[in-house]
Design goal:
Pfam family, one: GFO_IDH_MocA_C3
Number of helices: 5
Number of strands: 11
Mean pLDDT: 92
CATH architecture of one domain: 2-Layer Sandwich
Oligomer: single chain
Radius of gyration: 20 Å
Strand order of the largest sheet: 10-9-8-7-1-6-5-2-11
Protein name: GFO/IDH/MocA-like oxidoreductase domain-containing protein
InterPro entries: Gfo/Idh/MocA_oxidrdct_glycsds (IPR050463), GFO_IDH_MocA-like_dom (IPR055170)
Largest sheet: 9 strands, mixed
Keywords: Oxidoreductase
CATH superfamily of one domain: Dihydrodipicolinate Reductase, domain 2
GO molecular function: oxidoreductase activity
CATH class of one domain: Alpha Beta
Helix content: 25-40%
Low-confidence stretches: none
Strand content: 15-25%
Structural class: alpha+beta
Distance between the termini: 21 Å
Order of helices and strands: HEHHEEEEEEEEEHHE
Length: 261
């Protein structure tokens, strides 16, 4: 099991239900973002997240991986990508002890500095095996965005839109609504929806990040009790890593790259 917990947000599980039952028709395109601001300040200290020898990657492995998982959870496997990866802040002050404080501490301007050798921002186009297309953007340098995860998915029969900052809501639009009523409507998730038995049983009480971790453990323990695989089994994580590898390769080659089978 791995910790791609955002796919367990009840609103996204509901979106998956709509897709699987055919309510949205054939999926045409998917757009995802994951924007944070904690490393936008160049005085934020160096940590393992900025060092390739420790982290393996920057924004790509840290946060883009989560929205890659969301995209594949909803629309199926990604087949190929073309990408850009940028590093805007090439050195950062060193903090004592190496503690990862996620930008909460600012260092003196005279502090020793070391190189940053990972990506700050990634933007890439994707083509799914189903024929759907999409885009993914991730950055840790977006002032005003703290944990801004968004998804918009369009099908031939409707669309869904999700914003993690309003994680208890799913926006839905149905193509067969009358012209004068067609538009996005809000579904408020609660005990009637997925994982409702693992959280609050009162509509409108809402959940947050802590409850998502409780749902993650609920999924894990339920899989053990029922002798099943959890929704984020290791093969899911491996699939995300293969996409990340293709994104990194494309940034170097400056051309479309296939995701390894």
């Amino acid at each position: 099991m791995n910790a791609y917990q955002y796919r367990r947000v009840p609103a996204l599980v509901l979106a998956k239900k709509f897709i699987d039952e055919g309510s949205l028709g054939r999926i045409l395109n998917v757009r995802c973002t994951y924007l944070q601001s904690w490393s936008a300040d160049p005085s934020s200290p160096l940590s393992w997240r900025f060092q390739k020898k420790v982290a393996g990657a920057g924004t790509l492995g840290d946060i883009a991986s989560h929205v890659i998982d969301i995209a594949q959870y909803l629309a199926g496997d990604i087949d190929e990508v073309v990408s850009m990866m940028q590093t805007y802040i090439t050195e950062r002050p060193v903090q004592e002890g190496g503690t990862d404080l996620l930008g909460t501490v600012k260092m003196d301007s005279n502090a020793k500095k070391e190189a940053v050798d990972v990506d700050d921002e990634d933007s890439f186009l994707v083509r799914f095996k189903s024929g759907a297309v999409g885009s993914i953007e991730a950055t840790r340098n977006a002032w005003g965005r703290n944990n801004f995860i968004t998804l918009e998915l369009h099908g031939t029969l409707g669309s869904v839109c999700f914003n993690y900052e309003r994680l208890n809501e799913l926006q839905v639009c149905w193509a067969n609504d009358p012209d004068d009523r067609r538009g996005f409507k809000t579904i408020y998730t609660g005990p009637a929806h997925f994982y409702g038995d693992a959280t609050w049983n009162i509509p409108g009480m809402n959940i947050g990040y802590g409850e998502l971790k409780a749902i993650e453990m609920f999924d894990f323990v339920s899989a053990i009790v029922n002798g099943e695989q959890p929704s984020t089994r290791f093969s899911v994580g491996y699939g995300v890593e293969k996409v990340c590898a293709a994104v990194a390769k494309s940034a170097g080659s400056r051309q479309w790259e296939k995701v390894q089978e």
